[in-house]
Amino acid sequence: MIINTYDPSALKPAFGIGMSGVAGLGTGAGWGRVAPGEASTSHQHDETEFFVIVAGQGEFVVDGRRHPARPGTLALFEPFESHVLANTGDSDLVFLTQYWRD
Questions:
Q1: C-alpha–C-alpha distance, residues 34 and 25, integer Å
Q2: CB 58 within 8 A of CB 86
Q3: Which one of 17, 50, 58, 100 is CB 3.0 to 4.6 Å from 27, fit for a cystine?
Q4: Cα radius of gyration (the chain)
Q5: Nearest C-alpha neighbor of 57 from the set 76, 31, 39, 77
């Protein structure tokens, strides 16, 4: 069994936001935090990736289109699809991500 809990003190700068890893799942995984008024840098990569929003409010910007992001939202990004996660609320936007190569 693997148990991992979001820990803000473990976050390190990546993609313009705070990120930490989750080891042992067999795929890449991590926690992320976007501070109020901030956004991740626009990026794309060769992995498939999904985000699950755990707390906060914001929006995904995917290939220039905006989509709401709130607790319970899951967004899947296909390889090479550019994406940004922006915090439009007044508290931290926290998410879990998992990514893999097909």
A1: 23
A2: yes
A3: 100
A4: 13
A5: 39
